Amino acid sequence: MSSSEERVFVTGASGDIGSGVVRGLIKNGIQTTAYVRDEKKAEGLFKDELKTGRLTIVVGTYSSVDVFTKSIQGHTRLFLLFSAIDSKPTDMSQVKGTFGKIAYEQENRQKDLDIASENRWKDYKIAEETRVKDREVADDEQKHSMLIDHQTFLSKLILKEGVHLNNTNYEAARFVARFKTLIAFRQLDPKRKTLLFKSLYVGKLAGRLDEDMAIDLSSADLSNIDFASPRDHIALTPPSSHPYYSVNFSDTNLKNASFNSVSFFNVSFVEAMMDDVIMLSTLTALISFKGASLLRAKFLYSHYININFATAKLDGSFFEHFECDQCSFNFSSLIGIRIQNSKFVNSTFTDTKMDHSFIAESEFSNNVNMRNVSLTSSKIHNCTFIGVDMRRCEMHGSSLLNSKFIKVNFDECKGLTIEQLKQAAIVSESILPNGTMYSSN
């Protein structure tokens, strides 16, 4: 038992020995009760100890059995002191017997109370866990019913208005279908959101580009949706399954969504809300993220071809083992991003904000355009830049530690100094901000 749980009852507390015991207990942070005959004497004797809030004074004598019985309750230990001066041995034996018995009985009662309290707490925990499980089961059953009800509703509507909801009352049918579908997405859990989206996509009712979709999914809540493998699985090879062609996610809410081991071809994420999304081991081509919000997004072990990130917000995002060919980040915001072990070729970063970023062990080559890019206070370590156009860039306070710059054009770049270039491993055939050619070797 810790000192904070102890409560010690001291009789004869105002005597020389008793007062020393009380002070020692208080000094060690133990809650103490002093049983004394003279309250004023005790208050003067224990003036400092009373200020701690850990000392309680009870007035009584060895013959005040009722007072002792009441005040001993809740204590864990009894320190029984008895002055034998002017007392008979039988008096001492009688006090020890009486007070000891009362303390023992109180201790047993306290143990019984503690056991009862513990049992009540265990019963409460079991009941609460049962209630939580019951609520989870009920909630799961409710969401399952919602999905079944929605699919039943769509089936009946299709039978009445045609596969593409284009019969006589097609405008009303499509309006109702969209309205009920958006409500369903807001109410369903991620697993059932995925099932509903895939059923709409496969059935060609919604989610496809370049086709007249019966159900418009713009503004749909697809947050936390999981399109493939578990979120914590790290695949080191390109995806071999889960392909999606001509998918339309424009203007949808995909916050915290997971696209693990998915192949995308000709897909639109234009103006989508995709904060905290995970793109793990994805293979994508002809994709548009134009104007999308991708704050803190993760692009891991993925290969992208012909991708448009123009005007997208990617602040705080993470790119690792990421390859991007023919990617446009023009006018986008990549402030505070991390790029590691990645490669960008034939890509453009014109007028892109990349301040306060960390870029390491990565390559930018084959006509990468970084004109007007802002890399203020960024760390560019152990990277390779070959044939990159960085005219009119901003690099105030940037670090270029052990990086290689070959045939890079820094003309009119602001904030780039010779001291910064000396941090680089190699600077070869590159144009300085003043227009002169420079090679460190």
TrEMBL record:
<dbReference type="Pfam" id="PF00805">
    <property type="entry name" value="Pentapeptide"/>
</dbReference>
<dbReference type="Pfam" id="PF13460">
    <property type="entry name" value="NAD_binding_10"/>
</dbReference>
<dbReference type="InterPro" id="IPR036291">
    <property type="entry name" value="NAD(P)-bd_dom_sf"/>
</dbReference>
<dbReference type="InterPro" id="IPR051082">
    <property type="entry name" value="Pentapeptide-BTB/POZ_domain"/>
</dbReference>
<protein>
    <recommendedName>
        <fullName>NAD(P)-binding domain-containing protein</fullName>
    </recommendedName>
</protein>
<dbReference type="GO" id="GO:0003824">
    <property type="term" value="F:catalytic activity"/>
</dbReference>
<dbReference type="InterPro" id="IPR016040">
    <property type="entry name" value="NAD(P)-bd_dom"/>
</dbReference>
<feature type="domain" description="NAD(P)-binding">
    <location>
        <begin position="12"/>
        <end position="93"/>
    </location>
</feature>
<dbReference type="InterPro" id="IPR001646">
    <property type="entry name" value="5peptide_repeat"/>
</dbReference>
